[in-house]
């Protein structure tokens, strides 16, 4: 009920936003407002956007928004987090009640083409799978013929699930929930035999179970789930700023620029591309209407991609999710930034 109320308040607040947000100059609206409006989950997306008991937002998507606030406003703390259930996330963004949606949302053809939304890159390559109780004895998704499966309603996960069972000639009973938390509770109570979601989400859900060791994520990966920052399709310049904020974080890892050494690298690096990225040479900040050292501010706020992943999703977090495809291209993954040139 709390999350529904929060979402309703977010929608109601759209009418109070500056007119510029609806007219396309999002950066102007953010600077006039003095804060970035970042749509996140309702606080249960462990590792991505979580609200702790002290009222602090944490997670990879949360930190990305802080890095974007540092880029645009020069202050990573100038973010207002807007908690949203998935079923209202896109409409809230479309209404202008959020500048950016950092709540996990898969980039797909239909969403891109028909919802007037845009994705500014991918900060996590994921894929859908299943989580089941170990006592069920299932070794793969092929063992789930006739099973009841919990999945979030109205998501790509629900559609992928139907495709998986249809293509394998299997039957299942779908049990939909409105939130990840509801699906976790249904699985734990025995209402369903398996829970299907992105594997990163399943790993996060497992940490919230009463006895995490009683649950296993099956090895099947049966979809592509590119997750990234989602925007309205009305402001190409804002999309560029968001995309290059992500590129800065990725390139920083490749070049060995960290949260701890970014100031030193900005002053002394002899790498020509690092010099351009960090504002020592060229006018790359000016090209996007940003400060010359905006990349320094981003990295000082978030660290590089490897640091961001490690503390929120990797071995330094409760989730302990291998990077896999989210490794740099030079290490067998899919991540790299276009050149700063």
From TrEMBL:
Residues 1-21 form the signal peptide. Keywords: Signal, Transport. One of its GO terms (biological process) is amino acid transport. InterPro entries: Bact_solute-bind_prot3 (IPR051455), Solute-binding_3/MltF_N (IPR001638). Coiled coil: none annotated. Residues 35-265 form the Solute-binding protein family 3/N-terminal domain. SUPFAM superfamilies: Periplasmic binding protein-like II. The keyword S-adenosyl-L-methionine does not apply. Belongs to the bacterial solute-binding protein 3 family. This is Amino acid ABC transporter substrate-binding protein. It comes from Bosea vaviloviae.
């Amino acid at each position: 009920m709390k999350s529904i109320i929060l979402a309703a308040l977010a929608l109601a607040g759209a009418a109070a936003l500056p007119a510029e947000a609806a007219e396309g100059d999002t950066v102007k609206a953010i600077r006039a407002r003095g804060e970035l409006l970042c749509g996140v989950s309702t606080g249960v997306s462990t590792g991505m956007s979580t609200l702790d008991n002290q009222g602090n937002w944490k997670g990879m998507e949360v930190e990305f928004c802080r890095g974007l606030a540092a880029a645009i406003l020069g202050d990573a703390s100038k973010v207002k987090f807007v908690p949203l259930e998935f079923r209202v996330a896109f409409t809230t963004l479309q209404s202008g009640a959020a500048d950016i949606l950092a709540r996990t949302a898969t980039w797909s053809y239909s969403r891109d083409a028909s919802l007037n939304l845009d994705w500014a890159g991918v900060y996590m390559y994921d894929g859908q799978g299943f989580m089941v109780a170990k006592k069920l004895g299932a070794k793969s998704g092929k063992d789930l013929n006739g099973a009841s499966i919990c999945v979030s309603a109205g998501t790509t996960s629900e559609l992928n699930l139907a495709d998986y069972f249809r293509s394998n000639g299997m039957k299942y009973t779908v049990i939909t929930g409105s939130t990840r938390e509801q699906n976790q509770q249904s699985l734990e109570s025995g209402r369903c035999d398996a829970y299907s979601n992105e594997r990163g989400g399943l790993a996060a859900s497992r940490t919230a179970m009463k006895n995490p060791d009683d649950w296993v994520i099956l090895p099947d990966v049966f979809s592509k789930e590119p997750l990234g920052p989602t925007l309205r399709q009305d402001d190409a310049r804002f999309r560029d700023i968001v995309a290059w904020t992500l590129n800065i974080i990725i390139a920083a890892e490749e070049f060995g620029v960290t949260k701890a050494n970014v100031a030193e690298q900005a002053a002394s690096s002899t790498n020509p591309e690092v010099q351009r990225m960090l504002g020592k040479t060229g006018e790359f900040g000016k090209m996007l209407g940003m400060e010359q050292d905006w990349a320094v501010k981003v990295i000082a706020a978030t660290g590089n991609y490897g640091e961001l992943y490690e503390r929120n999703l990797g071995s330094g977090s409760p989730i302990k999710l291998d990077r896999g495809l989210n490794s740099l291209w030079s290490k067998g993954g899919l991540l790299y930034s276009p050149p700063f040139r």
